[in-house]
Amino acid sequence: xxxxxxxxxxxxxxxxxxxxxxxxxxxxxxxxxxxxxxxxxxxxxxxxxxxxxxxxxxxxxxxxxxxxxxxxxxxxxxxxxxxxxxxxxxxxxxxxxxxxxxxxxxxxxxxxxxxxxxxxxxxxxxxxxxxxxxxxxxxxxxxxxxxxxxxxxxxxxxxxxxxxxxxxxxxxxxxxxxxxxxxxxxxxxxxxxxxxxxxxxxxxxxxxxxxxxxxxxxxxxxxxxxxxxxxxxxxxxxxxxxxxxxxxxxxxxxxxxxxxxxxxxxxxxxxxxxxxxxxxxxxxxxxxxxxxxxxxxxxxxxxxxxxxxxxxxxxxxxxxxxxxxxxxxxxxxxxxxxxxxxxxxxxxxxxxxxxxxxxxxxxxxxxxxxxxxxxxxxxxxxxxxxxxxxxxxxxxxxxxxxxxxxxxxxxxxxxxxxxxxxxxxxxxxxxxxxxxxxxxxxx
Length: 443
Known about the structure:
The protein is α+β, with helices and mostly antiparallel strands. The protein folds into 2 domains: 31-234, Cytochrome Bc1 Complex, Chain A, domain 1 (2-Layer Sandwich), CATH 3.30.830; 256-440, Cytochrome Bc1 Complex, Chain A, domain 1. The chain is 45% helix and 18% strand. A hairpin with a 4-residue loop joins strand 4 and strand 5.
């Protein structure tokens, strides 16, 4: 009786919590327009704090690279902080930090994104630097050679010299073999080493164009001033031809099945890496798959943790995550065996849980909790100027609907238990699975 009462109270709490949060979610106001050269501009005013975030989202990632010249998109993430026609080397970060701001960037398979967060009085400085980088970057010997060394060192520290460092690249290569998603953004050191300055210039001119970018300004600014500034700084650049795009046709139809055991001298624990070919970010099932991931893996009450880690103690940790991209995706399951247990035992225990959700589905309480978490994350993504700027750029880029930022939560709330069970079958009943066992080795 106590357990039944407790479960009922949890369900009531989750329902009440979701309704309360729903009342707090206010529509995000924004304006958007295109410059004649194709630059898409999104403006979101928020005068709650004297801060402005600018985001420039370039529609270029590792997928756009020549397979024989991987790492270019990530290389430019670094090179764009070098110098321009009017900004000397080693001064860009000083200009921003001296103004009390912050700057950074990241690269993925589909995008390269740059941002500044500055006091509202310095919005024109941030826009000027971004306009300089867009078409006036100096792609010269000193900058290129400096960043070659930086990128190679980053690869060593993040991939080559760490335990299990190569698993993610190997997983991509197996799941997306012979496609533009077959390599990671970090790319190959050899490719970067052997590339000429001319090749880098060609890549810059191909993809770093106004028509291939989205500019978002979010925060405490004057709309007229920002519009005039954007027009003055970015407007003079001519419209470029549509850049070359990779072909993804037929990728979802290929069957992938692989299994490999790797002895890793840096590893301390046996670790399992399991990957399934998944769906694109704009697939209608993306919301159900995200909720399924939460039910299976998020928190100590999730299915994988409760059974495999807490109850059976076969593994010390197990996680399930989704990597959804513009044209496809991966669902990844990672687990480390506990003392006295094998990776085969971990894999079998995971398979039992996957089969259980395919056959028996999920409970009302599990789905409601997952929706509650989704709503909390949705609300959290709308706090802070930078987060909102990122979201606005992404909704326009991947859904061609910036207004989805105010409507997407409804799509999570409409997911049913039947949807969860159906997508679990769609995801896990196929043969698109790759399994790696990483075992400690004395070398």
